User: Fold this.
Amino acid sequence: MEDIRGLTKAELTERIKALSEPSYRAGQIYDWLHKRHVSDFDQMTDISKKLREKLRSEFFITRLEPLEVLCSELDGTRKYILSLGDGNVIEAVLMRYHYGNSVCISSQVGCRMGCRFCASTLDGLVRSLSASEMLSEVYAIEDDIGERVSHIVIMGSGEPLDNYDEVVRFIRMISDKDGVNISQRNITLSTCGIVPRIYELAELRLQITLALSLHAATQEKRLRTMPIAKAYELSEVLEACRYYGETTGRRVTFEYAVVKDVNDSLEDAELLSDIARRLHAHVNLIPVNPVKECGFSEPEQRKLQAFREELEHRGVNVTVRREMGRDIDSACGQLRRRYIANAGMRTD
Ligand code: SAH
Assistant:
């Protein structure tokens, strides 16, 4: 059985033709799947019963079920626990901004990158998500709020470039004019820095924003928190980002989780600004979200301000990530862990 929601319109058209049906049927079915988000062939009311039966015998339709929704009273942020068909659960987050609704999606169940401050990786990788499951994260949220989503950040659990093919398929499908049609310029992919995949992605010349989780301005410091730095030196990652920017014409973003007494000194800011200026990159500072198991603390407000001012003073384009849904807490990956623990399920 094949997952029909994971087929591009061209692929679906081929399959429909192979069933000796006219190709415009593919357009109707594609609309049902990607505009109306149906989860049962019987909901496709303009498709004959006979064809619905045929479809049912060859395909299934992925659907993610919200198991829990946490809503912020402060800013309308909604955090979702969604169940996958195989019983695994993932997190996705809706953030409301003045420019539209942004959804942060997970690309894997768990993660194998091992960053020391991150809750998503504590139990390792369970499996990667299919493009269809990632689309369904967005659709489940659109259905829940009854509104369209305009921006996507691939910054939830998982390393998107460790699930390269399905993530690229997801990006192509969610930006498909015949589908949801979210502009690629409104999509950000965040990576810990898997160098060969950054080059591969650059060659596709998608118009998405690449965000690099930098978190340290020297190789030596980066090694302390990010095991991926063992595989790819900072200089190599930066060169790959420079190439991505040059090839796609898109400004790269550096994410920098500011951690008390680890990377929050003015010297760190100075080194970071050198790198950012060289690559014309935007810097997004994230006060680290403390995860109990990790033992890192947020920087003092005063220090964070000084850090930011130092970057600005040196001509760097910098923002401090506003913490969304402060009242419903939960750093990346923590919600899922808590849900699993409460449900008495094993995480390994
Ligand atoms: N694997 C990808 C995307 C997922 S994480 C990546 O590494 O970029 C999304 C962002 O949140 C990354 O920049 C990640 O380093 C950061 N992050 C993870 N845990 C965090 C925490 N406890 N506090 C602040 N940022 C965190």
